[in-house]
Each structure stands twice: as structure tokens, then as C-alpha cells.
Specification:
This protein is mainly alpha-helical. The chain has two domains: 203 residues, MFS general substrate transporter like domains (Growth Hormone, Chain: A, Up-down Bundle); 214 residues, Up-down Bundle (Growth Hormone, Chain: A). The chain has 23 helices and no strands. Helix 2 packs antiparallel against helix 7, helix 7 packs across helix 21 and helix 15 packs antiparallel against helix 22.
């Protein structure tokens, strides 16, 4: 009897064993394709965010010298501050422009084609900023930073899209973490290159700002050797042969059949549907929860207090007794800390899943907000308190990198199907850049008005986002795009029944 029972259910047992997720590693071609996409994509974003900090004093001196040559008078302090803040903040305006056109370009030119074309902006920006000093026109720095922002906006929109579409389902989370790893790697590289011992000296700042051309040149040399997104080739272009060839190159001959079946199912499900525009997403009630989720997560990624932590870092380090000339090296330590957590998150995401990491990250950030407020309030209570504040700085950065910093872009890829994904990235990117601009504009006034208690505002943001994720967003690990969409639809129907039948809270249904 036991043997008959075993024989009867043997196919089911074998199927169950086969369906159990196994630890997989990307093959060399897939790994190199991801690196080639990232080096000219989100790496540029991180690099250009951090590299502008090192030459602050020298650029302001250059602006004053140029002004004096033109008008035979020193520039006023207010106008100098306005010029410098414009150079820094116009990067976000460029990012918003890039995010608003990135999705459209990815449909017209393809994911890979858009990334390659995007390097034109990086090379132009490097040229403008590099020659600004020699020609004595500081306005070229403003234009160059604007063009840098356009490059970063397109890159941060299209590169995660490319990674999410070339990755097999079992590796989609780990591959998506390349976005966060290269952003933090770009920030760290900008901090290191900006040290005085390298290109941080007064005579080198034009060269420092023009180094944004190096990642662009690397991508132009490497990425053409790798294929376009297989999903784009089959679903958007209907090119079966190129899709199969791309799958074989990226996944190997043994694993390409399963991915082909998955892409074909999604194509059949989307027959008759064209690529959606952002306004189509707002009008489509079937994706309202996905859309609300990416808008909230995109805004929270900038409004969660990570920028405030970096703003306060110098103050905390000085109070801890670190000499002013040594603070840039400690700042490099914060960049290395964030880069390390991005790598850690990349290794954990396929084991723990997206939901645990991002919910846990925001929860830990909420706790850090409370502790940081207390340590800043009682800085003079004991010589130990400044060191506790410094520990809070690193703990907050670790918590951000553990989940919110990396998982947010992955969820934007996973919550939408092929025809809606570019529009979703345009909306998420626009929200992210607008929030970035809002923080840069409003945060200094928040600090003046609330001082250390501004972290109570960030506490509320982090706690509310953690609660929303826990209640609304499903776990997407090891699920196809169609399975995730189906789960959202069934969950939305459950919410509607709950609200209509019992008047329950709309967010009370856990998915």
C-alpha cells in the first residue's frame, strides 16, 4: 500500500521539488549586461549628486572672479548664493525633464537604444562644465548641470526597466538591486574623487566636473555588445528571432525556454493593447492601487529623512570631536556604509523577499528618527551623547539602504505589465524628482523652524509608509508579472466588497 501510494503521487512530489526555488546565479553575459547598463545609468545619478559638493568653495570663487571681470565689482553675497543654489538645484529640474521623456523614449528607441542615446547628454554636460573656467562663463555650469539632470532622469527611469526585463523571474530582485548598488557606488566614487588628494584641489575642479564623461564612454564601449530587452523585442516589436537570440545570450540555452513561455503568455494577455501613456494609467481603475503605491513610495524615498541625515552629518561629526579637515573622510565612510547595505540587500532580497526588507527598513528608520531627535536634544548632557548621534547617522543610512533605497525601483518594475511599465516609470520618476526638489527647497526652512524636531515629521512619514506597505503591497518574490497583476486585481475586488458590505477601512485588507 505505501508503494502504491508513492507511485500514485510521485509526479506531484517530483513537481513540488522542481517548483521549489533554488539559489541561482546570473550567467556572465547577464551580469555584464547589467553592469554595462548601470555604469552609464544610475551610477551617473549618484556620481553627479555627490561630486558637486567638493568644489563648492572654488566654484563660488570662480563666479565672483567672472562677475568682477564683467562688472568691475564683487558679486553680492545674496546673488552668489542664488547662483550657487541654482547650479546645485537645477540638476533636479533636469531630472524631472528626463523622467518625463524617458518612458516615451524607451518605447520609441527601445530600452538599450535609449540608454545608449542618453550618453549624448552626459558627454555634452561634461564638455560644458569642463570648458566653463577656460572661457570664463559660469552660466555654462548651470546649463551643464541641467543637462546632467536630464541624463540622470532618463537613466534612473530606463535602466531599472531594462534590468527588470532582462532578468529571469528567480533573479529579478537581485538584478534590480544593481540600481541601488550603482547609485550608492556613484555617490561613493564622487566622494572619493572629490578628496583633495585626487581631484578636489582648486586647480582641478573643472576636470572633476567633466569626469561625468567617463561612465558614458564606458557604456558606449560595452553595452552595444549585449542585446535589447527580450520582452521589448517580443511584446512591443513582435520580433521572435531576436527575442530568442537575446534570451539565449542572457540566460543560456538551458534556461531560455521557461522565460520564453513567460514572455509569450504576457504577450498573449496584452494582445490588442498598446503602450500606455501616463494619463492612461490615471484613468485605468484596474491599476489604481499599483499607481497609488508607486506614487507614495517614490515620494517617500525623498521625504523619509535621508537627505536631512546627510545635512546634519557635518554638525554631528564636529560635535563628536572630529576635526573639520577630517570630516570629508568620515563622509566617505557614510557613502561606503550605504554602498555596503545595498550589496547586503542584493544578497538578501531573494531569500527574505521585497516586503520584509522595505517594511523593516522604514520601521528601523522610524526608530532612528526618535533616537536621533533625543540625542540632538540632549547633546550637552554627556560627552557620550554626540557619539550616540553619530551611531544614529550610520544606523539610519544602513536602514535606508537595507530596503527603501533599493527595493522601491524593483517594485515599480514588478507591479506593472509590459504595456504600462514605461508610463509607470515616468510617473514614479517625476514624483521622485519633484520630491527631491521640494526637499531641497523646503528643508532648510524646516530646520530653522523646527530644528532637531524636524525628524518627528520624518518619523510620521516612515511609520505611515511602513504601515501602507504591510497592509497593501503583496510579496512579489518569484512571481511573474501576470501573477502579481492578478493578485492585485483579486485583492482590489476584496477591498471593494469589504467597503461596500461592511463599511470597513479601505486599507484594512492585508494582501
Amino acid at each position: 500500500m505505501p508503494n502504491e501510494f508513492l507511485n500514485e503521487y510521485e509526479p506531484l512530489l517530483i513537481k513540488e521539488i522542481r517548483d521549489t526555488p533554488r539559489l541561482k546565479f546570473p550567467n556572465k553575459s547577464l551580469l555584464l549586461a547589467a553592469c554595462a547598463a548601470c555604469i552609464g545609468g544610475t551610477f551617473q545619478y549618484g556620481y553627479n549628486v555627490s561630486v558637486i559638493n567638493a568644489p563648492t568653495e572654488y566654484v563660488q570663487t570662480f563666479i565672483n572672479q567672472t562677475w568682477r571681470e564683467r562688472y568691475q565689482a564683487d558679486i553680492s553675497e545674496h546673488v552668489l548664493t542664488l547662483c550657487w543654489s541654482t547650479i546645485v538645484s537645477i540638476f533636479t529640474i533636469g531630472g524631472l525633464i528626463g523622467a518625463s521623456i524617458g518612458g516615451t523614449l524607451s518605447v520609441k528607441l527601445g530600452r538599450k537604444g535609449t540608454l545608449l542615446t542618453n550618453n549624448i547628454f552626459a558627454l555634452l554636460a561634461a564638455l560644458l562644465m569642463g570648458i566653463s573656467y577656460s572661457v570664463g562663463v559660469f552660466e555654462l555650469l548651470i546649463i551643464g548641470r541641467l543637462v546632467c539632470g536630464i541624463n540622470a532622469g532618463i537613466g534612473i527611469c530606463v535602466q531599472p526597466l531594462y534590468l527588470g526585463e532582462i532578468a529571469p523571474t528567480a533573479l529579478r530582485g537581485a538584478m534590480g538591486m544593481f540600481t541601488s548598488i550603482f547609485i550608492t557606488g556613484g555617490i561613493l566614487t564622487g566622494q572619493v574623487i572629490g578628496l583633495r588628494e585626487l581631484l578636489g584641489g582648486e586647480e582641478y575642479w573643472p576636470i572633476l566636473l567633466s569626469t561625468t564623461c567617463i561612465p558614458a564612454i564606458l557604456q558606449l564601449a560595452i553595452l552595444p555588445w549585449f542585446p535589447e530587452s527580450p520582452r521589448y523585442l517580443l511584446i512591443d516589436k513582435g520580433d521572435n528571432e531576436r527575442c530568442k537570440k537575446a534570451l539565449k545570450q542572457l540566460h543560456g540555452v538551458a534556461d531560455c525556454d521557461g522565460e520564453w513561455d513567460d514572455i509569450e503568455k504576457e504577450k498573449n494577455n496584452l494582445l490588442g493593447f498598446e503602450a500606455m501613456k501616463p494619463w492612461d494609467l490615471f484613468a485605468d481603475r484596474s491599476v489604481r492601487w499599483q499607481l497609488l503605491s508607486i506614487i507614495l513610495l517614490g515620494a517617500a524615498q525623498q521625504l523619509n529623512g535621508i537627505n536631512a541625515i546627510y545635512f546634519y552629518a557635518d554638525y554631528v561629526f564636529k560635535r563628536s570631536g572630529i576635526p573639520s579637515e577630517k570630516i570629508p573622510y568620515v563622509t566617505v565612510g557614510t557613502g561606503a556604509c550605504e554602498c555596503l547595505t545595498a550589496l547586503t540587500c542584493g544578497m538578501l532580497i531573494e531569500c527574505l523577499g521585497r516586503k520584509i526588507l522595505i517594511t523593516g527598513g522604514y520601521t528601523l528608520m522610524s526608530i532612528c528618527c526618535i533616537l536621533f531627535t533625543l540625542t540632538l536634544t540632549f547633546q550637552d548632557a554627556s560627552p557620550v551623547v554626540p557619539y550616540l548621534s553619530m551611531a544614529c547617522v550610520f544606523a539610519f543610512i544602513l536602514s535606508f539602504g537595507l530596503g527603501p533605497g533599493g527595493v522601491t525601483n524593483i517594485l515599480t518594475t514588478e507591479l506593472f505589465t509590459q504595456n504600462a511599465r514605461p508610463a509607470a516609470y515616468m510617473i514614479a520618476g517625476s514624483v521622485n524628482w519633484l520630491s527631491f526638489f521640494f526637499v531641497g527647497l523646503v528643508f532648510p526652512f524646516m530646520v530653522i523652524g523646527l530644528q532637531q524636531y524636524c525628524f518627528m515629521f520624518f518619523l510620521v512619514i516612515c511609520f505611515m509608509v511602513a504601515t501602507y506597505i504591510f497592509c497593501v503591497i503583496p510579496e512579489t518574490k518569484n512571481k511573474t508579472f501576470l501573477e502579481i497583476q492578478t493578485e492585485f486585481k483579486s485583492s482590489s475586488n476584496g477591498k471593494a466588497v469589504s467597503v461596500d458590505g461592511a463599511g470597513a477601512n479601505l486599507l484594512s485588507t492585508s494582501i
